Amino acid sequence: MDKKSRIIISVLIIFLLGAIIFAFMAVSSKEMLRREFESVKEQLQRENEALAKKASDALQEKKNMELRLEEIKRELDNLSKEKSDLEKKYEIVTKEKEDLIQRLKTVTTPTIVTAPAPPTPTQKPEVEDAYWAGLLKEKANLEMTVDQLRNQLDNLKIQLEELKNNRSNLELELKNLTQERQDIERKLSYTEKLIDSISLELVREKKDKRRIEEELKMLKNEHRMAIQRINTLNEEKLNLEKKLQQVQSEKTDLERRLKEANIALERKTLESEGSKERYASSENLPAQSVELPPIVVRSPEAEVSKESVTYKGKVLAVNREHNFIVIDLGEEQGVKIGDLFSVYRNEQKIANVEVIQTRKNVSACDIRQQSTNIRVGDTVK
Questions:
Q1: What is the pLDDT of residues 60-99, one digit of tens each?
Q2: Whole-angstrom Cα distance, residue 304 to residue 339?
Q3: CATH fold of 2-109+126-219, please?
Q4: Distances in Å between the alpha carbon of 356 and those of 37, 326, 369, 379?
Q5: For burial by CB atoms within 10 Å, which of 19, 202, 266, 353 has the most?
Q6: What CATH architecture does domain 313-380 belong to?
Q7: Could you give the maximum distance between any two Cα atoms of the chain, in Å?
Q8: What is the reported pTM?
């Protein structure tokens, strides 16, 4: 009975220690997952805000470019109108020039009539000279005006070509901005999907934690029941020990009586001797014993060997409150949960981290050991 109770007590103690270790691991994993969720949520919120700001800046820049394009279009229309006006003026001037040339060709030299009186014979040639000088001067002015208009027209053509080039450049920039906006919108949608997936995973993890807590409560209840059973067994053991003492006292009394009976039975017949032998054989029967099967407690394997793979990345975020970091290496680079990395700054090792959760292009790592505080931008290998 003592051996059986000791085995039961040892098994219950081992079971209690296992339950305590399991509860500690569950609580620590719950706290670690909570810290990880908060850090990833904050990081994704910051990335979402940055992407939203970039998108708003891109939209504002697009609006500005559209306004600038409209202004350029209006300037082009004005230049086109000015060009058409100048062309009309050039045609008018050219026509006037041709008319003047035609008039010059058709003008005939007037005949001078001499009179007997001496009124002023040199006045008429002077008027004609002045007339021809005015015509030549007007012709020269018209030619200069035509040359100026031609130069202005050439300059306007050059400006028009430059504006066309600027317009094509602005259209190209607008196209690039539209492409960048589409890329930013795709990144925003990807970030939202990533947040939804992380939320679903955390919900599942919370459900698993709840289930583990319920199992832990059940184990605690079973532990209390086992302790109650142990107490009951101890009480039964004490009662049995008392009964055993009573039986031993009764046995001594019977032995004394047997001795007295043996003295009296020596004088009896062979029948009494036979009955005495039967009684002695009944008293000397061996007690039956029940052997309990041995209880074997197997210990879990200490560690699982992991294949180490070397990568190189950067630290994207550091959460000192919950003791973890986020790096720019993920499932696409072959990173798995449990991988170990070292953090370097200026080619000097400052910390060791372990991957606890992975995504497509990022991973969350728990800080195992650090000699200097990790900062954003440190190298991870």
A1: 888 888 888 888 888 888 887 888 887 888 788 788 878 8
A2: 12
A3: Helix Hairpins (1.10.287)
A4: 12, 10, 15, 18
A5: 353
A6: Beta Barrel (2.40)
A7: 223
A8: 0.29
